[in-house]
Amino acid sequence: MFIGIDIGGTSTRVTGSPSLNNIIPIGKSIIPTPENFEEGFFEISEIIKSISGNPMGIGIGIAGRVSENGKDFVRSTNLSSWTGKPIVETLEKEFGCPVFIANDAVAQSLGEAYYGLKPNTDFLYLAWGTGLGGALVTRKGGEIKSAQLDRSHLREWERNFGGKNIKRSFGKKTAQLNEKEWDVILPEFQRLIRDLSDKFNIEPVVINGGIVNKQKGRISKILNNTGSPKILFSKLGENTGPYGGLALIKTKLR
Q1: Domain 2-106+239-252 is in which class?
Q2: Residue 14 near residue 29 (C-beta atoms within 8 A)
């Protein structure tokens, strides 16, 4: 059994599968992400044990930056108390199997590439939820790679319109925004997509995340307008995170 985990700023999702080629989801779970690392590790470990006591591999996507060696969780705006904690080492000791970790957008984009839309070209992936993350997926010689977008490309936009910051910008939560306020936000989202697509000379742009999934109706109205790159909704939706963890294992164990 393989275990895919998505640790976001708001929720944590876990899914098991006996195969990495064709996902057969087993034991799908979702919990609020604990602010405390030790509490989070305990809850995640208990979910893993309920799926399999002897997993063959664990893949984790997490909201933040991961070290170049793929072993350490360096920092996160939305998971500050998890920063610097030995997530990989602790899980490897607990379960005696290989554990891999990557930025959540990187893992999710791999999930989309292997199990979701499966674009046969390079593509840009954006996840808009508690924060905003992005990754650039490339295909070369049959190999799929994903690289996290530098925060400098996203920081200003996230500061104003990331889910966590909308309350600061508009004085209310995302679910309470009215049409006039969405009419301010969504054209800015479209502009961000267009600017990133132009900068990296790439399309399609695959979009996902908590806000995207809840606002599909509104976002659909601005998709593929004149002057915009080709924009696609994620096929996996809320499953993208844990499926991304499984895809990360697939790329590492090849």
Answers
A1: alpha beta
A2: yes
Angstrom distances, CA of residue 91 to CA of 32, 116, 130, 159, 186: 19, 27, 25, 33, 40
Domain limits, CATH 3.30.420.40, in the chain: 2-106+239-252, 119-234
Q: Write the DSSP symbol of residue 235.
A: S
Q: Measuring CA to CA, how many Å separate 113 from each of 93, 136, 171? A: 30, 11, 37
DSSP 62-119: ESSEE-TTSS-EEE-SS-GGGTT--HHHHHHHHH-S-EEEEEHHHHHHHHHHHHSS--
Assigned token pair, 246:
């499984």
Alpha carbons 40 and 91: distance in angstroms, whole number: 12
Domain made up of 119-234: CATH architecture: 2-Layer Sandwich (3.30)
Query: How far apart, in whole angstroms, are the C-alpha atoms of residue 88 and residue 198?
Result: 36
- Is residue 148 within a helix (H) or strand (E), and if so which, with residue range? strand 143-148
Residue 145 CB-density burial (10 A; 0-12 exposed, 13-18 middle, 19+ buried): middle
| pLDDT digit string, tens, across residues 180-224 | 999 999 888 888 999 999 999 999 999 999 899 999 988 888 776
Statement: the pTM of the whole predicted model exceeds 0.85: yes
CA separation for the pair 52, 39 (Å, rounded): 20
